[in-house]
Amino acid sequence: MSTIKVDTIQTRSGNTAAVTGAGFITTDQIKGTTTATSVTLPTTTKIGATAIVSASAGSATIIAEGGTTTTNIQQGLGKQWVRLSGAGMAVVDSFNTTSSTDSAQGKAAIAIANDMANTSYACIFGGEDKQDGGGVFVTNINQAVAQATTGYGMVTKKQTASAMSIEDVNQNMACLVCGDLA
Questions:
Q1: Residues 17-20: contacts with CB within 8 Å, 24+ apart?
Q2: HSE of 97 in the Cβ direction (CA atoms, 13 Å)?
Q3: DSSP string of the chain?
Q4: What gap in Å lies between CA 56 and CA 42, rounded to an integer?
Q5: pTM higher than 0.85, yes or no?
Q6: Tens place of pLDDT for every residue, the chain, 182 residues?
Q7: What are the structural domain ranges in the chain?
């Protein structure tokens, strides 16, 4: 095995990147070749003072805000979200969503593009209707639709002074899914 030891590395234009006593190269950027598909970094990589640790394949942790504990980056990400609008439950914007099916008044069936690992994922809902000043809207899981790794059902209910009914929203009906992808 060969060893190369140098004090200074220069680019073609004469810029230098000093080699530190710990064996690190100090530079402003690292760039791979045009055919490079990845850059391998150490298990623990620091960005400024923040350490990112590769715990296992496809998993990384980062020091949390308080500085005394870590949080898993993948676990903290929303895995799917969708915003629907109108009587036809049209998708206004989404992430990891294949489609939305208008299954009945105030109800939609959401298809997830990249399946969830199990059916125990969390759905966080929201909804409102700016064009209807007479009611409060509640959006939640549609219990009539079995929550599957491939999707879920959602329903919007309108509460007025005298009754609660399932209603289409004119404006916003949304869901964020948190959990493990398959």
A1: none
A2: 24
A3: ------SEEE-TTS-EEEBPTTSPBP-S-----TT-------SEEEETTEEEEEEETTEEEEE-TTSSSEEETTTTS--EEEEEETTTTEEEEEESEEEEEEEETTEEEEEESS-BSSS--EEEEEEE-TT-TT-EEEEEE-TTS--BTTEEEEEEEEE-SS-EEE---SSEEEEEEES-B-
A4: 12
A5: no
A6: 677 776 666 656 666 555 555 556 666 666 666 776 777 777 787 777 777 878 676 778 887 777 788 788 787 889 999 999 877 888 999 999 999 999 888 899 999 999 999 999 999 998 776 666 666 778 888 888 889 999 999 998 887 778 888 877 767 889 999 999 98
A7: 8-72, 80-178
Q: Which amino acid is at 178?
A: C
* Residue the block writes with tokens 């998708």: 91
